[in-house]
C-alpha cells in the first residue's frame, strides 16, 4: 500500500564556516528555516517536528512563505536530505520534479535526453525504449524532439521533464512549483495526468505559491512556517477552471 | 569508523549499479567539448602530439641520449597530463555537479566515476599519440612493456580515490581550486616530465626523490625505456594508492550527506 508517514521529523545542519582566504562568510545552505546558536556554533533549523500521514490517493499541497521549508520537506521525502531526527516511513516508488533542467544536456537532442533522464531514474534500456514514443507524444514536441535541448523554450522543457517524470507512473510524485512554467493547455493536461496517477492509488506532493494550482490539484493543504507545520487542512473541491482562474 | 566505511561502500556499490549513467554522461561530456569541430575528439591527439613534439624539439639533448629522449618525454607527458587533468578537475567537481546533487539521489561516487571515465577517454587519445612516438623513436618492444601496462592500470585504479579526496577538499576549501591549479602548473617543472635526473643538482634531487608524481611517471616509463620492473616506483605508487583510497573512503563515508549543504 502506498503511504507516507512522517513523525516528528526535523532537519538541522551546521553552518560550515568554509576554510577560505577571503573574508569570513557564514553562508546559508540550500534550505530555508531558522538560524539558531551564535558564534562559531550556528545551526539552521530547516524543519522542526514535522509530522503528517498520507495514504493512497492523497494529493498534498505544501504552502507557506519563502524559506518556510516547502522545498526542504520535498527533498527530505525524496532522500536528498537526511533528517536529523524523527522517523520517515515511505511505501511506494518515488519520483520527483524539482528542477526542469536536471539531467538534461543542452547540446543533446530531446530524444537523447529522454534516454539520459531514464538512465538517471534507473530505468532499463527496455523500459526507455518502450516509453520513448509515449513520452514524445505526451510532450507534444513533434519534430523538435530531434533538435538540441537548448533550442527549447522553458515551456517545452517543462513539458518534456513532466512527460519523462510521469512516464513510468511513479506511485509517489513530488513536485516543486515549476509546473506553472507550461502554458494553460499543458497545465490542464498535466493536471489530468496527475489525477490519473492519484486515482491509481498514488500520492502527489506539490509545493506551490499558487493558490489556484493547489486548489486545482490538491486534496489537502499543509502550511509551513519557519520549518514548522502551522496547519494541515482539507482543500475544498472546486472545478479546475475556477481554481486555475484564481491567483 | 566502521559505519563511515559501510556508508562509503554502500555509496560505491550503488554507483556501480548505475554504471550506465556515468558511462553515458562521460561520453556526452567528451562529445560536448568537441561538438561542431572538424576533428572532434581527435583534437586531443593533435594537442598531445603538438606538446610532445615541442618539448622534444626544444629540450632534446645532443648526442647518444637523443634517441631515448622522445620516448621519455612522450610517456612522461602522457601520464602527467592525465594526472594534472584529473586533479585540477576534481577540486570543483561537487560544485560543478551542484544541480544533480541538489536534485537527484544519485550516489556521490557516480560523479567521481563520471570524471574518471571522462579523463580515461581523453587520456586514450594521448596513449595513441604516445604509441606513435614510441614506434617512431624506436625503443624495442619487450615483455617488460607489460609492466608499463600494469603501471598505467595502477594509476587508473588510483584515480577515483584521487578524485574523491580532491573533490571533498574543494567542497570544504573553495580556494583550493586555484591553489591546486597553480601547484599543478608549477609541479610540471618540479617533476621529471621533460627533464632527466642524473643525480646532479640538489634541488632536482629533492624534486625527484620526494615527489610522489615521480613514481607515478616511473611505473609507466621505466619498463619501456630500461626494460626493468621498477619495484621502488611500484611500491611508492601502490602505497600512495592505498593511502588515497583510505582517505577517500573515510571522507565519502563521513561527509557524503554533508556535501549537499556545502556546495
Describe the structure.
The complex is a heterodimer of chains A (247) and B (263). Chain A is of the alpha/beta class. Chain A has helices at residues 70-78, 110-120, 125-139, 154-167, 184-199, 211-217, 240-245; strands at 3-14, 34-38, 41-55, 59-63, 85-91, 94-97, 172-175, 203-207, 220-225, 228-234. In chain A, α5 (184-199) links the parallel β7 (172-175) and β8. The mean pLDDT of chain A is 83. Chain B has one domain. In chain B, α4 packs antiparallel against α7. Chain B starts with a helix and ends with a helix. The A-B interface holds A 13, 16, 18-22, 29-31, 75, 78-82, 96, 98-99, 101-103, 105, 107-108, 112, 115-116, 119-120, 122, 125 and B 18, 20-21, 24-25, 28, 31-32, 35, 99-106, 172-175, 257-258, 260-262.
Q: pLDDT below 50 for ≥5 consecutive residues: which ranges of chain B?
A: none
What does the overall shape of chain B look like? Answer: globular
Q: From the alpha-carbon coordinates, what is the Rg of chain B to the nearest angstrom?
A: 19 Å
Overall mean confidence score, pLDDT of chain A: 83
Give the biggest sheet of chain A: 6 strands, mixed
CATH fold topology of chain A = Rossmann fold
Helix fraction bin of chain A = 25-40%
Domain count of chain A: the total is 1
CATH superfamily of chain A: P-loop containing nucleotide triphosphate hydrolases
What topology, given as strand order, has the largest sheet of chain A? 6-7-8-4-9-10
Biggest sheet of chain B, open or closed, and with what strands and sense?
Answer: none
Q: Tell me the span between the first and last alpha carbons of chain B.
A: 24 Å
Would you count the extended β strands of chain B for me?
0
| Greatest interface and its participating residue counts | A-B, 32 and 26 residues
Shape of chain A: globular
Oligomer: heterodimer
Q: What is the helix content of chain B?
A: over 70%
Number of domains of chain B: 1
Amino acid at each position: 500500500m502506498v503511504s507516507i508517514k512522517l513523525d516528528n521529523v526535523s532537519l538541522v545542519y551546521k553552518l560550515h564556516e568554509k576554510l577560505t582566504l577571503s573574508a569570513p562568510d557564514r553562508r546559508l545552505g540550500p534550505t530555508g528555516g531558522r538560524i539558531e546558536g551564535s558564534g562559531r556554533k550556528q545551526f539552521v533549523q530547516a524543519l522542526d517536528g514535522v509530522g503528517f500521514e498520507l495514504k493512497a490517493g492523497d494529493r498534498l499541497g505544501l504552502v507557506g512563505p519563502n524559506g518556510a521549508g516547502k522545498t526542504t520537506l520535498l527533498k527530505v521525502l525524496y532522500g536528498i536530505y537526511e533528517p536529523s531526527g524523527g522517523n520517515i516511513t515511505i511505501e511506494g516508488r518515488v519520483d520527483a520534479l524539482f528542477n526542469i533542467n536536471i539531467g538534461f544536456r543542452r547540446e543533446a537532442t530531446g530524444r537523447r535526453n529522454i534516454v539520459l533522464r531514464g538512465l538517471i531514474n534507473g530505468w532499463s534500456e527496455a523500459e526507455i525504449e518502450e516509453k520513448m514514443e509515449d513520452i514524445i507524444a505526451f510532450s507534444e514536441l513533434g519534430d523538435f524532439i530531434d533538435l538540441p535541448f537548448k533550442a527549447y523554450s522553458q515551456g517545452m522543457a517543462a513539458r518534456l521533464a513532466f512527460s519523462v517524470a510521469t512516464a513510468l507512473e511513479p506511485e509517489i510524485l513530488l513536485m516543486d512549483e515549476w509546473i506553472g512554467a507550461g502554458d494553460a493547455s499543458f497545465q490542464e493536461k498535466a493536471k489530468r495526468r496527475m489525477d490519473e496517477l492519484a486515482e491509481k492509488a498514488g500520492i502527489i506532493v506539490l509545493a506551490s505559491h499558487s493558490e489556484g494550482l493547489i486548489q486545482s490539484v490538491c486534496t489537502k493543504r499543509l502550511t509551513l512556517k519557519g520549518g514548522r507545520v502551522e496547519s494541515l487542512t482539507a482543500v475544498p473541491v472546486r472545478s479546475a477552471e475556477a481554481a486555475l482562474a484564481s491567483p | 569508523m566502521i559505519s563511515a566505511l559501510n556508508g562509503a561502500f554502500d555509496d560505491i556499490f550503488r554507483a556501480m549499479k548505475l554504471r550506465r549513467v556515468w558511462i553515458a554522461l562521460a561520453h556526452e561530456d567528451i562529445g560536448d567539448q568537441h561538438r561542431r569541430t572538424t576533428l572532434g575528439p581527435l583534437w586531443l591527439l593533435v594537442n598531445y602530439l603538438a606538446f610532445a613534439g615541442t618539448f622534444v624539439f626544444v629540450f632534446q639533448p645532443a648526442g647518444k641520449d637523443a634517441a631515448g629522449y622522445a620516448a621519455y618525454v612522450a610517456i612522461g607527458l602522457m601520464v602527467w597530463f592525465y594526472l594534472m587533468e584529473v586533479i585540477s578537475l576534481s577540486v570543483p567537481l561537487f560544485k560543478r555537479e551542484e544541480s544533480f546533487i541538489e536534485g537527484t539521489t544519485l550516489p556521490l561516487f557516480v560523479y567521481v566515476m563520471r570524471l574518471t571515465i571522462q579523463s580515461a577517454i581523453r587520456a586514450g587519445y594521448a596513449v595513441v599519440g604516445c604509441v606513435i612516438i614510441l614506434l617512431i623513436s624506436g625503443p624495442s618492444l619487450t615483455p617488460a612493456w607489460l609492466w608499463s601496462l600494469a603501471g598505467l592500470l595502477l594509476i587508473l585504479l588510483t584515480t577515483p580515490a584521487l578524485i574523491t579526496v580532491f573533490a571533498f577538499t574543494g567542497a570544504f576549501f573553495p580556494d583550493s581550486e586555484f591553489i591546486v591549479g597553480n601547484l599543478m602548473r608549477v609541479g610540471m617543472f618540479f617533476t621529471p616530465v621533460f627533464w632527466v635526473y642524473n643525480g646532479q643538482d640538489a634541488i632536482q634531487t629533492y624534486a625527484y626523490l620526494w615527489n610522489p608524481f615521480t613514481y607515478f611517471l616511473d611505473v609507466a616509463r621505466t619498463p619501456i625505456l630500461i626494460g626493468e620492473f621498477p619495484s621502488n616506483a611500484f611500491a611508492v605508487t601502490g602505497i600512495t594508492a592505498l593511502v588515497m583510497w583510505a582517505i577517500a573512503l573515510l571522507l565519502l563515508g563521513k561527509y557524503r550527506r554533508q556535501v549537499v549543504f556545502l556546495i
